[in-house]
Request: fold
Amino acid sequence: MKKTCRQMRRAGAFTLVELMIVVTIVAILALIAIPLYSSNTVSSMMSEGIAGAGSIRTALRTYYAANGDSYSGATLNTLMINLVDLDGKYFASTDYSLINVTASTYTIKAGPPSQTSKPGMPYYTIDQNGSELGTYYTNQ
Reply:
């Protein structure tokens, strides 16, 4: 029996304790990495929405200049923007909306993204001054 244990040690076999330590370390790393990965995926999804809101904002500036320095009457359909261009991996053109449109103000709302099945996804809002009004989470 002693000969067999010595031969196994020389062959480079792992003991049960060594394997349990490695499994414990991998489990601890997974507990740390999974929440970080989840938050980064939500952040990357929202960057698509923020980019779409930027496209709408650019179209609104053009609309403002072409309509006598007024945002009145601006809708996503009246802007010189192809709504199909707003369709992406996570966001569809229907996920964007213009709210509180007056002659001198507007608010763009992007989200929550409809192309994902994750519950409780955020939405993003920005106004005519470029002030990000925050990222809010839905109650889903």
Remarks:
- The longest strand covers residues 122-127.
